[in-house]
Amino acid sequence: MKTQVGIIGGGPSGLLLSHLLHLQGIETVVLEQRSRDYVLGRIRAGVLEKGFVGLMEKAGVADRLKADGEVHASFSIASDGQMFDIDMAGLTGGDTVVVYGQTEVTRDLYAARDSVGGQVIHEAQDVTPHDVLTATPYLTYRTGDELHRVDCDYIIGCDGFHGVSRQTIPREKLNVFERIYPFGWLGVLSRTRPVSEGLIYARSARGFALCSLRSRVLSRYYVQVPLQDRVEDWSDDRFWAELKARLPGPVSERLETGPSIEKSIAPLRSFVAEPMRYGNLFLAGDAAHIVPPTGAKGLNSAASDVHYLYEALLAHYHENDESGLESYSEKALARVWKAQRFSWWMTNLLHDFPESGAFGQRMQQTEIDYLISSRAAQVSLAENYVGLPF
Ligand code: APR
Ligand code: PHB
């Protein structure tokens, strides 16, 4: 097989890039290790920045997002029982976020790829990039006993944190920056009415909690748990009791509980690998960087990479202009690090860090007090939450 751009990974990054390029007459093949059902079974954050929505519009796949997504102009922070609003729209001159599940984003992108006969190959095993330092790189993969080869001009690694792309780059060529947090998030999805129309990020002496939602009848809640906890340790009853104990009284009183539809624990990690290019292999999204979910920057950080790569590939194919590809890593990383800073800051603000002691707790409390009293501090939080420009 021959194509122009070979993409590893059929998550939101790979699919969005593939469809954007297709609309500009640039051919791609997407190789995805898993089945489509498996990819669509993953439940992930669903807070979309303006820039992400703009890319979906550019790709012509924003209709359902516009119809079913909920525009949020504010969110709340609760701390030790008190609660205050961050009026994102008022603080940023009108910017908002859209709450629309990442699973739905992926579903819409698959539908778009299918509608134009886009090549998305599922259950592609042993995907391997070759000759990425030459002008004729290629990919190999296996389906059953059959080995396939895809020749291409560029290989884009959109294969997430555990993918093969980053591992292809020799260790000595990569600088890795990492922070592993001493806790995880236990998440529950339930067919109950959300406790609040807006998101509530709650800090309490028992640890962090988050009230989020997928729709008017589908809620998504999280509590901070020790790293060693397992899902089996958390019955639904225990989860609801702990969530209530971490929320301000009036909120927990009106919380509607019900059986969990999904329950999982995710560790929290900050991670960046530099540079995001090795020869003709380019990394995008989770393949190059991970944020803790506080602030919902994972998918949005991936989107900025897709934006820079799309512009760079367009300039290369349509104008013979290599400058975008040359500067991709530098440009993408500048924004990646800002999203890293924000996610790290918000994680530090709201979680219980037992090892940071009494001083750390006072600093956290003071930071919250400052946020409540200072419009400047709120503007900084709001402009990051709605998303910095690409
Ligand atoms: N070969 C082919 N495909 C692979 C391989 C491999 N060796 N390894 C992983 N994949 C696939 C995964 O199955 C997955 O579908 O690559 C895809 C990567 O998708 P994501 O992990 O969703 O990463 P990305 O597309 O960059 O999306 C950004 O936003 O909210 C965050 O972390 C969240 O997924 C999220 C991300
Ligand atoms: C979610 O709805 O899953 C969600 C929302 C906001 C976050 C993290 C996760 O910061």
- Can you tell me the overall shape? globular
User: Can you tell me the number of structural domains?
Assistant: 2
CATH topological fold name of the largest domain: FAD/NAD(P)-binding domain
Our measurement of the CA-to-CA distance between the termini, rounded to an integer number of angstroms, reads 34 Å
Low-pLDDT segments = none
Number of separate strands:
20
Distinct bound molecules: adenosine-5-diphosphoribose, P-hydroxybenzoic acid
Largest sheet: 8 strands, mixed
Structural class: alpha+beta
- Which architecture of the largest domain does the CATH hierarchy give at level 2? 3-Layer(bba) Sandwich
CATH superfamily of the largest domain: FAD/NAD(P)-binding domain
Amount of beta strand: 25-35%
Radius of gyration: 21 Å
Q: In a nutshell, what does this entry contain?
A:
The protein has about 400 residues and is α+β, with helices and mostly antiparallel strands.
Salient structural properties:
390 residues; alpha+beta; FAD/NAD(P)-binding domain; D-Amino Acid Oxidase, Chain A, domain 2; 2 domains; 8-stranded mixed beta sheet; 6-stranded mixed beta sheet; binds adenosine-5-diphosphoribose; binds P-hydroxybenzoic acid
SSE layout and pairings?
Blueprint: E1 5-8, H1 12-23, E2 28-31, H2 36-41, E3 47-48, H3 50-58, H4 63-68, E4 70-72, E5 75-79, E6 82-86, H5 88-92, E7 97-99, H6 102-115, E8 119-121, E9 125-130, E10 138-143, E11 146-151, E12 154-157, H7 165-168, E13 175-190, E14 200-203, E15 209-215, E16 218-226, H8 236-246, H9 249-254, E17 260-274, E18 277-278, E19 281-283, E20 289-290, H10 298-319, H11 323-350, H12 357-373, H13 375-386
Parallel strand pairs: 1-2, 1-12, 2-8, 5-14, 12-19
Antiparallel strand pairs: 3-7, 4-7, 5-6, 9-10, 10-11, 13-16, 13-17, 14-15, 15-16, 17-20, 18-19
Helix pairs in contact: 1-6, 1-10, 10-11, 12-13
The protein binds adenosine-5-diphosphoribose and P-hydroxybenzoic acid.
